[in-house]
Design goal:
This protein is an alpha/beta fold. The protein has 10 helices and 10 strands. The protein has a single domain, classed as Rossmann fold. It starts with 17 loop residues before the first helix and ends with a helix. Bound molecules: 2-acetamido-2-deoxy-beta-D-glucopyranose. One of its GO terms (molecular function) is hydrolase activity, hydrolyzing O-glycosyl compounds.
Length: about 300
């Protein structure tokens, strides 16, 4: 059994990183245009320190309870779907929440089962279980049309959600979308290496994103994930889709976003490749791109009906 270092869950410490991660959210509307011209007026609605508040829980029959935070507001709502091993308190989740708050739109973030404050056992997590988590959040907590913002693994899962809930999922934003990614990477290994992983039951991948310097992926996780692959045939999703990807991504190659765009049946698909961004896309300019993209899709959804 793989054990995951606690570093992977390093809780977001309130106030600590605000100095450099906070972005002045400049939407195209009213007051914010003024702020854009006068950056010194910088966003006064951003609290000096984010409010510490507790999470809520979604109980489900026969499934682990999910921790979430929900902000009430206008439609469409926005749901942030985190990446592998990430919890609801990552930089992108919090920055997007602040942005939605400033616009007055509904927003939800949550922890997958086995992650953060949700119940469940991390080592038992599968793409299929986390897919169900996303559907539970959409079904039980989200009212009306939603824009899903999926990061990495969350980008893969958001396509599953759009396929399963076309009436509710109105638009998608993928950040370093990891569609099929672990399966694709596994299949690229040599026959010998694959055999060895199958025998050991575990695939150890070097990474700079955990303290111990490795991800431990169960062989069974890969096998289960194969059932959820999307890129082998047309993806039946027909809403506006925006795919953002860093060209310095060393976890999920940016070509994955091109493949997704190619396979999806929607024709309203834009891809933005950022030459200098890495997998996490959490630098100031990345966050700004993400929130502009949300703002733009809100405009599109609210003016096209
Ligand atoms: C996320 O932040 C909330 C406070 O907003 C806290 O209650 C919760 O424990 C944090 N979750 C994790 C996994 O650190």
């Amino acid at each position: 059994m793989a054990t995951f270092g606690t570093a992977a869950f390093a809780a977001w410490a309130p106030c600590r990183s605000l100095g450099w991660t906070t972005v002045s959210f400049v939407s195209h509307r009213g007051l914010s245009a003024l702020l854009a011209r006068n950056p010194m007026l910088a966003p006064s609605w951003l609290p000096a320190c984010r409010q510490k508040s507790t999470v809520s829980f979604l109980s489900r029959p026969d499934l682990p309870k999910l921790a979430y935070k929900k902000l009430k507001g206008k439609s469409p709502g926005i749901i942030f779907i985190p990446g592998y091993l990430s919890n609801m308190n990552g930089t992108k989740a919090l920055e997007i929440e602040e942005f939605c708050k400033s616009l007055g739109h509904a927003f939800i973030r949550f922890d997958y089962s086995g992650v953060g404050n949700s119940d469940g056992i991390l080592e038992e997590g599968t793409v299929g279980k986390w897919r169900k988590d996303v559907l539970s959040i959409i079904d039980s907590l989200a009212d009306g049309p939603q824009i899903l913002v999926g990061s990495s693994l969350g980008g893969w899962l958001m396509f599953h959600a759009a396929i399963a809930r076309p009436e509710k999922v109105a638009a998608l934003i993928g950040i370093a979308t990891a569609a099929d990614s672990l399966v694709t990477q596994f299949n690229q290994l040599s026959v010998e290496v694959k055999k060895e992983i199958e025998m050991k039951g575990e695939w150890v991948i070097p990474t700079k994103y955990t303290e111990e310097g490795t991800y431990h992926i169960q062989y069974s996780f890969i096998k289960e994930a194969e059932h959820h692959c999307l890129l082998h045939s047309p993806i039946p999703v027909n809403c506006p889709i925006r795919l953002l990807h860093g060209m310095k991504d060393d976890i999920v190659p940016w070509h994955t976003s091109l493949q997704v765009a190619d396979r999806v049946i929607s024709t309203d698909v834009d891809i933005v490749l950022r030459k200098d961004s890495d997998h996490r896309m959490k630098e100031k300019a990345d966050i700004q791109l993400i929130v502009y993209t949300i703002d733009d899709l809100i405009d599109k959804l609210t003016t096209s009906t």
